[in-house]
UniProtKB/TrEMBL annotation:
InterPro entries: Aminotrans_V_dom, Aminotrans_V_PyrdxlP_BS, PyrdxlP-dep_Trfase, PyrdxlP-dep_Trfase_major, PyrdxlP-dep_Trfase_small, SP_NH2Trfase/AEP_transaminase. It comes from Neptunomonas marina. Signal peptide: none annotated. This is Alanine--glyoxylate aminotransferase family protein. Transmembrane segments: none annotated. Belongs to the class-V pyridoxal-phosphate-dependent aminotransferase family. The modification N6-(pyridoxal phosphate)lysine is found at K197. Its cofactor is pyridoxal 5'-phosphate. Keywords: Aminotransferase, Pyridoxal phosphate, Transferase.
Length: 392
């Protein structure tokens, strides 16, 4: 007979999901009400305000999509890409490849700008792509590439697009709430994220925001968006107005309670303070890892503080170490993806998981595990290096 499922208590320091705040878990347990209930509609309005603060935007169309970050990505592309549109797509990891897939599925032509995994998107290559394809209508890129832990210069890339009269679609799934992101100031036209990274919310919701220029393109479409569920012309009847809502779909009520609470927590801390917290604990983690002789994949100038991709020491078995961390310490870190599988670990410091206790746990557990397996690493220096950062 199958009985109730009770998951083990883990510390999640992989690429996501991250540890969920106890306040957010409590919010999810509150009584479910109707998705058109006036009280719920009031909360929806507050979610939009809070998301604007997190994204640093005044975009009227700022809302959560009732599905994971991948649906937020699709919502941007399915509304903005029409058959025959030429889109410059930047790929420096797994998720740029998914952008290409979206462009092609919706009838667009993807012009690829390729950079090495672990390197940021080259602004100069993007300029060259626009020079070769002046009729390109959209530039799409990943701000924070989850597969590698690299940050690209979103402000500079958006400026290139603006100079050529093109819109921008930007993936901020891993950056929202964890590192600097300024949608309006940088001129981002369509942006999507996820709840399970630095917002420390369960997966299943995707915040998005569309600029007035992006909305104008949506309104001027000559063809209907090929997705009914993600068509912004339809869903805005539910999320767009203040107060009264037209039925579109049954929103995930309790999941939106969770998002609301996570955004309240971010508001209490302050978005800039959250960026600073992620940077501080990244420096401590970096010091501890480097004291063990563990090096980073990404150049320091472009590293994401919330997603640390490090090279696995020579002779160390990737899966064996991650299994030992999970079984002995209830600690999850992430494996590499694609060409980096078996070569790197991805260590997350996201949202509620980004704290001193977790940094100490990760460094001490990893040092203990590697030493027990006979890895050639210095022993006894890592925690001292961590504490030196916090003492400074």
């Amino acid at each position: 007979m199958i009985t109730s499922f009770h998951p083990p208590k883990r510390t999640l320091m992989g690429p996501g999901p991250s540890d969920v705040s106890p306040r957010v878990l409590e919010a999810m347990s509150r009584p479910t009400i109707g998705h058109l209930d006036p009280a719920f509609v009031t909360m929806m309005d507050e979610v939009k305000v809070l998301l604007k603060q997190a994204f640093k935007t005044e975009n009227a169309l700022t809302m959560p999509v009732s599905a994971p970050g991948s649906a937020g990505m699709e919502a941007c592309f399915v509304n903005l890409v029409e058959p025959g549109d030429k889109v410059i797509v930047c790929q420096n990891g797994v998720f740029g490849g998914r952008m290409k897939e979206n462009v092609e599925r919706f009838g667009g032509e993807a012009v690829m700008v390729q950079d090495a995994w672990g390197a940021p998107v080259s602004v100069e290559k993007v300029k060259a792509a626009f020079a070769e394809h002046p009729d390109a209508k959209i530039l799409a890129f990943v701000h924070a590439e989850t597969s590698t832990g690299v940050r690209s210069d979103a402000q500079a890339l958006c400026k290139v697009a603006q100079d050529h009269g093109a819109l921008t679609i930007v993936d901020t799934v891993t950056s929202l709430g964890g590192s600097e992101l300024r949608v309006d100031e940088w001129g981002i036209d369509a942006v999507y994220s996820g709840t399970q990274k630095c917002l420390s919310c369960p997966p299943g919701i995707s915040p998005v925001s569309f600029s007035e220029k992006a909305l104008a393109k949506v309104q001027a479409r000559e063809t209907r968006a090929p997705s009914w569920f993600l068509d912004k012309k339809l869903v805005m009847g539910y999320w767009g107005g203040e107060g009264k809502r037209a039925y579109h779909h049954t929103a995930p009520v309790n999941s939106l309670y969770a998002l609301h609470e996570s955004l309240v927590i971010l508001q209490e801390e302050g978005v800039e303070k959250a960026w600073e917290r992620h940077a501080l604990h990244h420096q401590a983690l970096k010091a501890g890892l480097e004291a063990m002789g563990i090096n980073f994949l990404v150049d320091e100038a472009y590293r994401l503080p919330q997603l640390n991709t490090v090279l696995i020491p020579e002779g160390v078995d990737d899966a064996q170490v991650r299994s030992a961390l999970l079984n002995n310490f209830n600690l999850e870190i992430g494996a590499g993806l694609g060409d980096l599988a078996g070569k790197v670990w991805r260590i997350g410091l996201m949202g509620a998981a980004c704290n001193r206790t977790n940094v100490v746990l990760c460094v001490s557990a990893l040092e203990s595990t590697l030493a027990r397996m006979g890895a050639d690493i210095p022993v006894g220096k890592a925690l001292q290096a961590v504490e030196a950062v916090y003492a400074s």
